Amino acid sequence: MDFIVAGFVKAIELLISGDNSTWTAVWATLKVSTCSMLLSVGAGLPCGFLIGYFDFKGKKHLRTILDTLLALPTVFIGLAVYAFISYQGPLGELGLLFTLTGIAIGQTILAFPIVTAITASIIENIDQDLKLTLVSLGAGKRNIIATCLWEVRFGILTAAVTAYGRVLTEVGISMMVGGNIKYSTRTITTAIALETNKGQFADGIALGVVLITIAFIVNLSLSFLRRQ
Amino acid sequence: MNRKQFFSGIIAIFFVMLMAISVQADSKSLMMATTTSTDNTGLLDYLIPHFEKETGIALKWTSTGTGKALKLGQNCDVDVLLVHAPPAEKKYIASGYGKDRREVMYNDFVIIGPAMDPAGIKGKGISEAFNMIKGKKGIFISRGDDSGTNKKEKLLWKNAGIQLPDKEKWYVQTGQGMLASINVAEERKGYTMTDRGTYIKYNSQKGGNAPLKVLVEGDAILLNQYSVLTLDPKNCPKAKYELALKFSDWMASKNAQDLIKDFRLLGKELFIPNAK
Amino acid sequence: MAINSIIFNLKKIRHFYGDKKVLEIDDLEIEKGSITGLIGPNGSGKSTLLKLLAFAEQPTFGKIFYKGQKGLPFSHLVRSKVTLLTQKPYLLKRTVFDNIVYGLKIRKDTAELEKKVKKALENVGLDYALFSQRKWHELSGGEAQRVAMAARLILKPEVLLLDEPTASVDTESAKLIRKASLKAREKWGTTLVVASHDLQWLYSITDKQLSLFEGHIFSAGMENIITGPFENMDSNNSESKGVKKVIKKLSDGQIIILTAPHNKENKAVIRKSNILLNLEKSKDNNFTNQLSGHISSLLLEKKQSNIIATIIVNDFSFVLTLSADQISSLSLYPGKDVVIEFDHNDVEWV
């Protein structure tokens, strides 16, 4: 139990002292999770919209598959991505293994179903009167899509925040694809795993506190957007 | 907030991030796979900067289980290996994945157990000790995760003439790492086999007076030999063979060997250099 | 009637939601510049019909012609020309100003926006300075509906469809909305189609009323509908020679006798013109059916100053058109007990 308290103390120490390995891990985490969050939102929004807005054959099946993808374990995704970008794999020439870019790809795959499923649900639950109103005011098909998305912007923000939370805290992909290389692909989560494995629980807690602080700051700034 | 400004801002951040994570390949850099137990000792953090300073080669390493490290080499995802599983390594070279094998240092495994030692194994040879544990049905904790350490432990049972007590109630398989398994042993007041490095850490955590003590040590078979393996260019033409050789040579150099000897884990000596 | 004056022409409409048929209209014409009322209980298809007229949905089967041409959703023919005001006030999540100019911006009509918005708000009784920057959630239901109305009127639509425009709002807003719709017709010749439960208002402004019941339209004169279950009349009864009849038993003991339908139709329609109103039952059995009930309302109709009388007989409402003279000669007033009479043969089955 003492290591939890020691951890909090250590967390403040690490942050204030500007400890190099901590701050490079923090920066790596921010870079990679922001990138994958933006990519997954960029791809997931239109897909989610299409699935939610239109009725088509096999829609229910597609939704079921999508919801199943939400439960993909990160180690599984990590393994699959490794298979592709390893030297032996089809994308081996790109040299993506053990890089932050590789991690970002894996995390995007992780977050994409989240954004898509949430967006689809939001779109499906849009008030019927919205479409009627837009048609009445002379909106064309493109206007409707754009305005619908803007009307549900708070819900979409939620999707983005959820995706961000998921990628910020995952270990499986970062570990498998990134390799936890110090000063290079070590993220906060893989650093926590490492410290815990080494038995340095206090350090693990410290890094965890750092992670939560980041998540808190991100959510705080996003809540300002909500007030708009 | 103006909508156009908002979206432009998002896109700007995105591109900055994308640039930031693009990696430039170093001309003189080496990628190594090693094991978690090696990395966890902190030896590499201490040793590698010296290598980089002396040779100008940047060395990055990733640590995983022994099996995966070998696999990474086989798949040509890394350039050089530092592992400690001699039988597997020799097979590796025979299979054409590894080219040169150079022994560089060793540490050892020990058997630890409760101070009161119910099976009475203190000071005995390893085979005798194992037979006594089996006889008295003393609780034995195994990692059971097919790691290098685990493979060593299985070898010890075989060496003692005992079939692996896989299904026995007194043989507990945790499927976890070394430290976690030691903690289980402490809870269950049982015996376990650990590398000395992890024991040092565990003991230090307990303020130097851990409930589990070193009971059996010193047998030749308990030695844990570390070697540097280069990858066979025939299997991995893109692997940086010349640089890997340089690393292998350096690890055997007097400077490196002295550094290894001087390395202390929590004040205790851990590795013994033995490059020829 | 010149083709030019017909703005809507519906032909053989059969509209389904999934497997359920919700609207069946063989032929319907709406004149340009007219005010048409839609009457009917909830679920009768009024909202669906309005949605189709708004070209928000395409009918599952059948065609709707707008100004003589085939009308399709999003086509230039109808975009911005046909507007619908929803029953519950609905605004986009933005300021009042942005809500009102939305339609104008879409058709790139962005000259003098402030002036136009000011005028539009005035028309619905809202002050520009006070309201234009308010957000969608800072308005009462009535204010929101007024803003929604303003957003549509600013487009000077050719057709204004109103779905219960006064149902969800306060009296003041209702008044202003009614006024604004009529003003649109006056100024721009906008055709109005209004669905409303406010019969008093509806009868006072509309040129024509359409009754909807279970997806069918019954034009003026055919609003009296008797629904089942019906029982077959006992064939041993000496009175029923030759012609098959059915009986509807009312819970107060009265019986309605009607000629049986040919097929599986289950709704009986009695035309207004076939119903006679009396104060007492007559002894000479001219009509098969003499039912006791009472007057529930007397409403003034716009045209020809007729009175629409609603008579309640047990669970059913019967609607009759009477002249002012008839009312006074019979001394009718709401609550008075009366008898309605009609023959079993004067039934149309639907």
Features:
heterotrimer, A: 228 residues, mainly alpha, MetI-like fold, 11 helices, 0% strand, B: 276 residues, alpha/beta, D-Maltodextrin-Binding Protein, domain 2, 2 domains, two-stranded antiparallel sheet
- Secondary structural class of chain B: alpha/beta
Q: Roughly how many Å is the radius of gyration of chain B? A: 22 Å
- Write out the CATH superfamily name of the largest domain in chain B: Periplasmic binding protein-like II
- Chain pair sharing the greatest interface: A-B, 27 and 33 residues
Low-confidence runs of at least 5 consecutive residues of chain C: none
Shape of chain B: globular
Q: In the CATH hierarchy, what is the architecture of the largest domain in chain C at level 2?
A: 3-Layer(aba) Sandwich
The biggest sheet of chain C amounts to: 6 strands, mixed
Roughly what fraction of the amino acids of chain B lie in strands?
Answer: 15-25%
DSSP strand tally of chain C: 21
Helix content of chain B: 40-55%
Briefly note the CATH topology name of the largest domain in chain C.
Rossmann fold
Distance between the termini of chain C: 29 Å
Low-confidence stretches of chain B: none
Description:
The complex is a heterotrimer of chains A (228), B (276) and C (350). Helix content of chain A is 79%, strand content 0%. By secondary structure, chain A is mainly α. Chain A has one domain (2-227): Orthogonal Bundle (MetI-like fold), CATH 1.10.3720. Chain A is globular, with a radius of gyration of 20 Å. The mean pLDDT of chain A is 88. With 276 residues, chain B is an alpha/beta fold. Helices cover 43% and strands 24% of the residues of chain B. In chain B, the strands form two sheets. In chain B, strands 1, 2, 3, 4, 5, 6, 7, 8, 9 and 12 form a ten-stranded mixed sheet that branches. Chain C has 350 residues and is an alpha+beta fold. Chain C folds into two domains: 3-219, Rossmann fold (3-Layer(aba) Sandwich), CATH 3.40.50; 224-349, RNA polymerase II/Efflux pump adaptor protein, barrel-sandwich hybrid domain (OB fold (Dihydrolipoamide Acetyltransferase, E2P)), CATH 2.40.50.100. Chain C is 22% helix and 34% strand. Chain C has eight helices and 21 strands. Chain C has helices at residues 46-53, 96-106, 113-123, 128-131, 141-153, 171-188, 199-205, 324-329, and strands at 6-17, 20-31, 35-39, 61-66, 69-70, 82-85, 159-163, 191-195, 208-213, 216-219, 224-227, 231-232, 245-249, 255-259, 267-270, 276-278, 289-300, 307-313, 316-322, 337-342, 347-349. In chain C, the strands form five sheets. A six-stranded mixed sheet of chain C has the order 6-7-8-3-9-10, with helices on both faces. Chain C has a five-stranded antiparallel sheet with strand order 16-20-17-18-19. Chain C has a four-stranded antiparallel sheet with strand order 2-1-4-5, covered by helices on one side. In chain C, helix 2 runs parallel beside helix 5. Chain C starts with 5 loop residues before the first strand and ends with a strand. The model of chain C has no long low-confidence stretch (mean pLDDT 88). Chains in contact: A-B, A-C.
